[in-house]
Amino acid sequence: MKPRLPLLLPLALALSGCAADAVPPASEIVSAGELLLSIDGEGELRSSKPMPLNVPGRNWSSRQVEWMLPEGSVVKKGDLLARFIAPDGKQQLDQAQLDLQRNALARLSKEGDLEATQGRVSVDLAQVAVQLGIAQRYAGADFSALARNDVLDAIEDSRYLGEKQDTLQWRRGQAGTRGGAELALLDAQRATFDLTAKDRQADLDALELRAPNDGVLLLTPSWSGDKPALGASMYAGTEFGSLPDTSAMEVQIDLPQIEAQGVATGNSVELHPLGRPDQRFTSRLSWVASAAKTLGRESPVKYLSVRAPVPAEVIARHGFVPGQRFTAKIVLAREADAIGVANVAIEQQDGKHWIKVREGRGFVRREIELGVRGSARSRVLKGLAAGEEVLLSAGGPAQPDDAQPGEATDQAKDKDKDKDAG
What we know:
Elements lengths: L4 H17 E2 L2 E4 L2 E16 L4 E3 L7 E7 L5 E2 L4 E6 L1 H53 L8 H58 L2 E3 L4 E2 L1 E2 L13 E3 L3 E4 L6 E8 L11 E6 L7 E4 L2 E2 L4 E2 L7 E9 L1 H7 L6 E18 L4 E3 L2 E8 L2 E12 L3 E6 L6 E5 L2 E2 L9 H15 L1
Antiparallel strand pairs: 1-25, 2-24, 3-13, 3-19, 4-12, 5-7, 5-11, 6-9, 7-8, 10-12, 13-18, 14-15, 14-19, 16-18, 17-18, 19-23, 20-21, 21-22, 22-23
């Protein structure tokens, strides 16, 4: 047995070294007391009754900003907010008026042609009527009074003149119908030109944007993020900005989705402007978005939007204006005597929640019932008592401080290879 002692001593030293390098388990002893679960965030003050301001005009006509008030200007109802110019609209109006004049000349010409055509046919009808009367008189004469050939010629002439008279009457009727259709076409074209001219004139008359109510001017960025500026081209009907009603304000808070669990309508919110904790006030969430969404194309992170109204007396006291940034603390739960546990200790499986609790020299798995869940801690309703020890981390082998991700695993593999070679 003595020859084995030199082998056991290095093994014992190696085992003691490994034990010294291991990370011990982390745990906490829970206690009952005041429990505060909250979420911190930031939001922007906005009006709950925004008044959108659209570029004046119709039919997406083009405009250019000639003059405008700077963003944040306090305005009264009826004040001029922006003035536009529309060079293209002026050119289109001139073209429509020119088309109207051409149409009027074309109608006068067509009416003259129709009157001339009908006049010529009327003259021909009068001549044919006279000739037909003479022919009919001779056609009914006695052969003893006139030569037979003359009578027969008169009969043929009366037949020919009768057919000619019918043809001329048909031509007069056709000229009236065709001329009426051509005049109706010109009238329809005139109505179109007149409507175009009126639209262009209405666009040119709507080149000023005035305030529909008192408020603070806020500009709306386009899809590219650019706000209206002097010389910018815009289209009628697009949103220029908004004029929020400052008597009804709210703070919209965007919370990261991973931290927004447990947020519900009615949660208490502590708010104050950035850098002004002396202007702190309390409100409650009045609206919570049904789903989280991204705030831009730059980041895939989703945020849950919530809103909290600001009392009118607070607005009047501190002079808050739309666009201010606010610090917010949303209180999920505030209990005077409750038990809470860190979320890292909770396991979820099959819709149930589990933790590991100290029993003797080890930890056993136990099912618990949770209440409100915060971003870091959750309230325990059943399954855990004050004074019990809960496992937070099982620990494990230590990793060098200067090791990069994956280096510890590679070193372990090298040791295994050395052992296999030995």
